[in-house]
Amino acid sequence: SVIDEVIMKTDGIIFDVDGTLLDSMAIWEEAGERYLERLHIKAEPGLSNILFPMSLEEGASYLKETYEISLKEEEIVKGILEVVKDYYYKFHKKLNIESFLKEMSLKKIPMVIATSSEKSYIEAAFHRLNIDQYFSKIITCSEVGAGKSKPDIYLKAQEFLNFKPEEIYVFED
After folding, report:
1. 50, exposed or middle or buried, with CB in 10 Å at 0-12, 13-18, 19+?
2. 149: which of 10, 53, 86, 142 fits an S-S bond (Cβ 3.0–4.6 Å)?
């Protein structure tokens, strides 16, 4: 089984959240468009694909430049976060994820989060879903200053786990 393979081959695990642990990808795929709608701006086709690998700050910079938005980038980030905030109180865990997390926890395999999402939203969702106890740390792209198209967040998570890359599994969507 996958669980047996992971247990045998890893010392630590790095998890993405949206689409991997939580059934939450849909809102992130629409966040940029929904934010622009609030400003009465029509989004270009494929905007979600452009924004997907970016941190919130990188996405805000892209939106500001591309759509000539007069707001500060920090205000754009706040606006995007407002679009997604309420959804984190509704998301469900992905099917069978809790049994996997329990098994890894019982085997004492440390697990950390590497996410583009807002830390406080993840913490609230994990607490509500009673899975927060499985993770040693939540690391965000905003904290490391780069989106997931760069290795920074994974290197920070690896540093925290204190294992070699070949000793760590990464679960991403």
Report:
1. middle
2. 53
Amino acid 45: pLDDT: 94
pLDDT of 12: 96
CA neighbours within 13 Å on the CB side: how many for 170? 17
Predicted confidence (pLDDT) per residue in 95-128, tens digit: 889 999 999 999 999 999 999 889 999 999 999 9
Kindly give the parts of the chain with pLDDT less than 50: none
Beta-sheet strand order (sheet of 168-171): 137-140, 111-115, 12-15, 168-171
Would you say the C-alpha torsion 116, 119, 125, 127 has a positive or negative sign?
A: positive
Helices (H), the chain: 2-9, 25-38, 47-51, 56-66, 73-85, 97-106, 119-128, 141-144, 152-161
- Look up residue 17 and give its two tokens: 């959240």
- For residue 17, the one-letter residue type is V
Q: What's the pLDDT at 65?
A: 97
